[in-house]
Design a protein that fits this description.
With about 45 residues, this protein is mainly α. The chain has one domain. It is rod-shaped. Keywords: Membrane, Transmembrane, Transmembrane helix. This is Small hydrophobic protein.
Length: about 45
């Protein structure tokens, strides 16, 4: 197996970074929505 073939089979670094950013942003958005419902439901 040539080194170039092996690199193409692994996930590129840019995709990992994009997935991580989406993961963090999604959790921040979910936390914001949860906070809105928690504060709004108490009144």
């Amino acid at each position: 197996m040539s080194p170039r073939k092996r690199v193409e089979e692994t996930i590129p670094r840019g995709l990992w970074i994009r997935l991580f950013v989406y993961f963090v942003a999604g959790h921040l958005f979910a936390a914001f929505i949860y906070l809105l419902f928690t504060l709004g439901g108490g009144q």
